[in-house]
Each structure stands twice: as C-alpha cells, then as structure tokens.
Amino acid sequence: MSSVPTAAVGEPGRSGTVGQRPKDSEPHAGVVLDAENDIAKSELLERITVGVPGRQRFQKIFVRKSGSGAGGKTTIPYKAADDAPAEDRTLSIIPTTEEIESRAETLEFLVVGLVLAANPLQYSTKASGPSRNKQRDADRTARGVLPAQSNVLRAIVPTTDLVVHGSIKYYVACHQLHGLCNLRVISSDAIFYFQEIWDSIPEDVPVKDRRRQLGAACKLHAARDKKAPERALISLPTGSEPTASNVISIDRTSNAANVVMMQYCIYAMTKDPSAIVALQKTLEDILPDLLSRPTDEGILGFYSFDEVLKKEDAIKATSTVMAIYPTMPKLDPQLVLELHAALRRTGLGGKLPYKSFIAFLRWSHDRAAAGWDPQRLDAVVEAIIHDIEIADEVQEITTDRTVSKLTNGPSDLTPLLSGVRVALNEIVEYFRAQSKALREQHGGLAKHASIEELMIKIGNCVDKTALKALEEQVFAIHAEQLATANSNGAKYIQRCIDLIDQALAIAA
After folding, report:
1. Tens digit of pLDDT per residue, the chain (508 long)?
2. In CA terms, which of 95, 256, 386, 455 is 20 to 30 Å from 270?
3. Cα angle vertex 320, ends 316, 326, to 5°?
C-alpha cells in the first residue's frame, strides 16, 4: 500500500478553489520548475522550502477590497486564531482564476512571500528573543532549511503606479471565498520572502538594514513604472534680452546641495565670518526641524518607523520625557507603544516633526487610551498630526522675520558677488555640455541646400537604411537649433560674469 505524500507549501489541490498557473507571457514571467530548491527566507535569515512547482515569480493577484480602511485596504491585524485556515482547508499559493482576472471591488497586490498560518511569529524575535541572540542563531543553524509546510498564506503588498516613498505596509491574503481572499495586516518579521525579492540584498548586514532593503525591493517590484520620481522644474524668465530659452530641471535635494556648496565656496575664498552665518541660516531654512532633533536614544528610537517599537524602548522614551519635563502628566508606555504602531499603520510617522513630539504625546494621552481598537486609535493619530501641521503653519505665519534681523554681517558685497559668479559659471558649463551632447546625439549635421531639399530626398528614398540616415538628419537639425539657442543663453550669462569680474576688480 503506497503512502500518501506530504503536502508541499500551499500545494494545489488542498484549497477549496482550483488554482490556475499564470501564463508565461505575462509581465515578470518566470515559472519555478525546481520546487525543492525554491527557498524563501525571513529577515532573520530563517529558511523554508516553498516546494510548489508552477509558482510564478513576481505574481500579481487581485484581492477583495476591505471596508475598514482607506483605499479599500484593511487596518485589522492578522490573528491566527481567527484568520488561519483549518488544516483540512488550506489555501494554495497558486492563484485562482478570479485572482488573476480580477472581479468587481478588488485591488491588485504583489505576492512577496509566505506566512506560517497557524503561528506566523514562530521564528521571529517576538518568539525567540532579541535579533542579536547567539543561542537563537545557533538554533537557526541547527534547524537548517525548514521543510515545506502545507498551511501557509501569501504575504502581499499593494501595487502602485510609481515607486512609493516612506514606510511599507504588508498584508496577508486569507479567508478565501468564491476564489478571492480578504486582507489582514501582517508585520515584516512574520514573512518568508521569495528568492526574487532577496535578489542583490546582502545577508551580512544588520537586521534593520536587511528589513529596510527588503521593503525597498518590495516597493520597487510592486511599482508598474519603476522610473525615478519626477523632478521639480524651475523656469528661467526670458525678459526682453536674449537669454536661455529652455527650462533647467533640478530636484530639490540637488538645489539645496548646490546652494550650500556655493556658500561654502564663498567662505573658502573670502574667509569672511558673515559667510558662515549665511551658511548656518541656509541650513536652518532647509532643515528647520533638524535644530529640534533629540539627542536621547529613547526618543530617537520612537522615530524609527521601519520596525516595531519594543516595550523597553517605549519605557525609555517616556522616562526621558518625564525627566526633562517633570510637570508633564504621567505617560503610559503601553499607549506610546500603540501610538508608534498607529503611526506605522497610517504611514504618518514621517510627518511628525521632532519639535512636536511632546505635543503629540500630550494630545494623544488626552484623546486616547491604551487598549483601544486600532482603527479608532488610527483616527485619533491622524487628527493629531493634522492639528500639529496647522499649529506649525500658524507659528510660521506669525513668526516675525525682517531683513534687519536676518542681516547681521558687514555690507561688503564681495562675498555675494563671488558666490554668484561661481553659480553662473556652473550654468554656463551646463549649457555648453548640453549643447555638445545635443549636437553629438544624432551623429552630426551634414550639409544640405535647404530643409526642402532634405524632405524631397526622404520622399524619394526607397532604401530603409538610407531613410533612417535621412531621418536622423531631420532630428540633427532640430538638435542644432536647440543647441544654438542654449549657446546664446550661455553667451548672455558670460557677459554678466564679465561685468562681475569688472566689479570685483574695482573693489579689490
């Protein structure tokens, strides 16, 4: 009598709904054939055999919308007692027809790994102690690669149009009905990430760095368009004089870096103390909240929203606040712990300024209490962050900033003119480099009697290669026109530089 084989991880046939293998022609097509060597790995480097032939890498599925959260995404955490499938009704990780084709009131998600349904935190730090634990590492080594499990669920992240910024929220697909699953929130330490997510992520880095890189990889693969974020455009006014006719594109970070570098160069050239004052003022304007950055590790730990805040860190933060502000009403470490979790769930952690930390704690203890339902606490946190934004805006509006208060140095304009000269020279070099690149882009411009003659040649052309060469000439003409306009702008700026040189020579 033959024995019954052990079911692999999420093996097809164990689900109440028939799974459907994805088509190889779909985006990111890559079907796993060697199932026994398909190993998923947690952020703590625990390994488990997936063991499902036919699993498609970078699989996208549709999941039923939730009515309990913003955008159809739930805020309800996964609880094994309520959400784990019964051992005789486990779900397949191979998607159903409904999950591939979509139905009404569904959202698209990317499958990034597996979660142990019955005990999702069995191999996390919550179950085995701190992340830096020699005994836990030894136990992991002794276990080796865990065998395939039958009762697992898919860890998923929402797909996006562009690569999103900020923290990432993970979900688990469960409670499958009519071929579609519901959502529950899951923490990153419960996930065994697939090999394709781990690609190019090193193991020999701290857990915190692995967690951050895994989150970044999930956000990248979940984005339909993986191009860099769109840059801010700054238009130069033309006026009546001939100047640059195009638009310079520069992101805010690069612009701030250029301003700081220019002011540093002014100080390096002049050694004028007023240049240091101006540099300090610029840094304060660019990063106003940096002045309020706390030095205490306990408070700084609260601002780490890439990972779950530990109870001891919450106690440390509350103790520090009470020591600094003894008249502050008593703070509840458990509520602080839950507030941190709410900021992570809502993605609002990055909107809490350092200077508003005390106000956030005070308002939170006035409006909420430990043990509240996550949805109710999320709503309170969102309202407080909104109130803080308004308060900061009002403070900025009512702050009295006059020229007399901002100008404390000597009235010598030599440092300013020297800095402007450096910036203008950089713009000239930019124009020249752009003009050179434009002219070389299409292989140079050949001689033609006129544009009409070139168009006649294109109309009479019967050879594909010759037609392509003539079309390149049309593009080269347009590139030359733009390069010439840029050159005129560079010449105008050079005139300004010459005038600055004359002024500096007179002042010397």
Report:
1. 444 344 455 554 444 344 444 444 444 458 988 888 999 999 999 999 999 999 999 999 999 998 766 678 888 999 999 999 999 899 999 999 999 999 999 999 999 999 999 999 988 876 554 555 677 778 888 889 999 999 999 999 999 988 887 789 999 999 999 999 999 999 999 999 999 999 989 998 998 999 999 999 999 999 988 775 554 444 444 444 444 444 444 556 666 677 777 777 777 777 777 777 777 777 777 666 556 667 677 777 788 887 888 888 888 888 888 888 888 888 898 998 999 899 889 888 888 887 888 888 889 888 888 899 989 999 999 999 999 888 888 877 776 554 444 444 445 567 767 777 787 888 888 788 777 777 777 666 667 677 777 787 777 777 777 777 777 777 777 777 777 777 777 787 888 888 787 777 766 5
2. 256
3. 135
First to last CA, the chain: 103
In whole angstroms, give the CA distance from residue 281 to residue 275: 10
Report strand pairing: 145-146 vs 170-177.
Answer: unpaired
DSSP 242: -
**Beta strands per DSSP E along 340-486:** none
Tokens of 141: 């080594």
Which pair of structure tokens corresponds to residue 315?
């106690």
Rg of the chain (C-alpha set): 30
DSSP, collapsed to helix, strand or coil, labels residue 114 as strand
Cα–Cα distance for residue pair 500/266, rounded to 1 Å:
15
Distance between CA atoms of residues 69 and 171, nearest Å? 13
| Whole-angstrom distance, CA of residue 339 vs CA of residue 239 | 53
**Cβ neighbours around 308 below 10 Å, total:** 17
The structure tokens listed for 362 are 């005070």
Which pair of structure tokens corresponds to residue 330?
Answer: 């008593």
33 vs 57: CA distance, rounded Å:
11
List, in order, residues 6 or more apart from 410 with CB less than 8 Å away: 272, 274
Q: Residue 313: which H helix or E strand, with range?
A: helix 311-324
Handedness of CA 343, 344, 350, 353 (dihedral sign): positive
Q: Which residues contact 87 (CB under 8 A, 6 or more apart)?
A: 150, 151
The label of the residue with tokens 């199932």 reads 35
